[in-house]
Design goal:
The chain is an alpha/beta fold and 417 residues long. It has two domains: 258 residues, Type I PLP-dependent aspartate aminotransferase-like (Major domain) (Aspartate Aminotransferase, domain 2, 3-Layer(aba) Sandwich); 139 residues, Aspartate Aminotransferase, domain 1, CATH 3.90.1150.10. The protein has 14 helices and 16 strands. The strands form five sheets. The chain has a seven-stranded mixed β-sheet with strand order 1-11-10-7-6-2-3, sandwiched between helices. A three-stranded antiparallel β-sheet has the order 9-8-14, with no helix packed on it. Strand 8 and strand 9 form a beta hairpin. Helix 3 packs parallel to helix 9. The C terminus is likely disordered.
Length: 417
């Protein structure tokens, strides 16, 4: 394979080269002001990111994991509580729950979107829980009180929030969004008849700025968004050793600040994020067109009418995943698997007592999913290489689109902002 014809899984070089002058200016400003921790650059980014998410507050922290952990703690999740999430996500989701002192318990995902299945959540809350004498919802599995639900907006698409929020309200549970892969994703609430952005629907939300994210720092970073001023203040304390002001500690906290240089870099990139997200959506549409045109039997992403995904990842399903990935690697095409082993089957969670077969949708997906190259500067020519190589491996068959015709028609008439 000619290296010049290789298609990388992710390109982090091109956008940084294009923005090199602006990014260098951030570093120079920090050098000349010695404003390395906290200060105007951090506060400016927090205002900008809150505005981008249509949230009232944003608090910058050191990672997406800290963002979710601090959000849970600030919202009132206590040691011994149960927090319900999905097994099809990166382990940071469940790590944050555990590190907040709570116990993660899982419900399965939707077969098409890979996000939390509201019906599975309903079944868990109504059949696997019971009410205590004090009126608290108790997990029959662990005997612990259920405090919160963490839907994960996976791969850049929001979970179906209306039924999740309705179930949480009915059972007096908090909803904390894991939006670490969903910067700018949108959801049309049929209940409220308007679009919402990721980070503006739950009690709080967690974002990651890991370099490969749609909005990535030049290092680690994260943020909590919320419309609750008291929760925002609590996160500010948690990230900074529990300080209300310097050397006055209201509680034991953490060293979870995000430095000024990273927030300055994120402010530069945030201006470009809407265009980058639009390019990702265009690339996703091009994949759909190319797969349909070549008649290849592969299942592409499913985007419901209520969703405007930002395609952090472009994930397909293939029966012979290992063979396909080996073929693409030989052709110089990068791929990934997000994620090969569900959380409930990870060695780290053997103590939870789950077993194979407990979450069949997640387990099927974990054995078939392949992430294809997806980034804003991906070209149509590179995509054609990817699809042609997949077709060469699978042999021409009938392409099975995961977007049914009625959904396509409905998508064309989606409500506008």
């Amino acid at each position: 394979m000619n290296p010049s014809q290789a298609v990388p899984f992710l390109d982090l070089v091109t956008p940084h080269v294009e923005l090199e002058q602006e990014l260098t200016a951030v570093f120079q400003e920090a050098l000349r002001s010695a404003g390395f921790i906290a200060g105007p650059m951090v506060e400016n980014f927090e205002r900008e990111f809150a505005g981008f998410c249509d949230a009232e507050h944003a608090v910058a922290v050191s990672s997406g994991t800290d963002a979710l952990r601090f959000a849970l703690m600030a919202a009132g999740v206590e040691p011994g509580d149960v927090v319900v999430t999905v097994p099809h996500t990166f382990i940071a989701t469940s790590e944050a729950i555990s590190q907040a002192g709570a116990l993660p318990e899982f419900v399965d995902v939707d077969e098409r979107t890979f996000n939390m299945d509201p019906d599975a959540l309903r079944e868990y809350l109504e059949k696997r829980c019971s009410l205590s004498e004090s009126g608290k919802l108790l997990s029959r599995r662990s005997g612990r009180p259920v405090a919160a639900v963490v839907p994960v907006h996976l791969y850049g698409q929001m979970a179906d929030m209306d039924p999740i929020l309705a179930l949480a309200e009915r059972h007096r549970l908090m909803v904390i969004e894991d939006a670490c892969q969903a910067h700018g994703a949108q959801y049309f609430s049929r209940k409220q008849k308007r679009w919402f952005k990721a980070g503006a629907m739950g009690r709080a939300a967690a974002f990651s700025f890991y370099p490969g994210k749609n909005l990535g720092a030049c290092g680690e970073g994260g943020a909590v968004t919320t419309n609750d001023a008291d929760l925002a203040v609590a996160v500010q304390k948690l990230r900074d050793h529990g300080q209300a002001k310097k050397y006055y500690h209201d509680l034991e906290g953490y060293n979870g600040r995000l430095d000024s240089i990273q927030t300055g870099i994120l402010s530069v990139k945030l201006k470009h994020l809407p265009a980058w997200n639009a390019q990702r959506r265009e690339r996703a549409a091009e994949y759909e067109r190319l797969f349909a045109a070549c008649g290849t039997e592969i299942q592409g992403p499913y985007e419901p009418a209520w969703s405007r995904a930002v395609y952090h990842l472009y994930v397909v399903r293939a029966e012979d995943r290992q063979g396909l990935m080996a073929h693409l690697k030989q052709a110089g095409i990068g791929t990934g698997i997000h994620y090969p082993i569900p959380l409930h089957l990870q060695r780290a969670y053997e103590r939870l007592g789950y077993k194979a077969g407990d979450f069949p949708v997640t387990e099927r997906a974990a054995g078939q999913i392949v992430s294809l190259p997806m980034f804003p500067h991906l070209t149509a020519g590179q995509q054609a290489q990817v699809v042609n190589q997949i077709a060469a491996f699978l042999q021409p068959k009938v392409f099975t689109s995961r977007v049914a015709l009625p959904d396509l028609l409905e998508r064309q008439s989606k409500p506008t902002m």
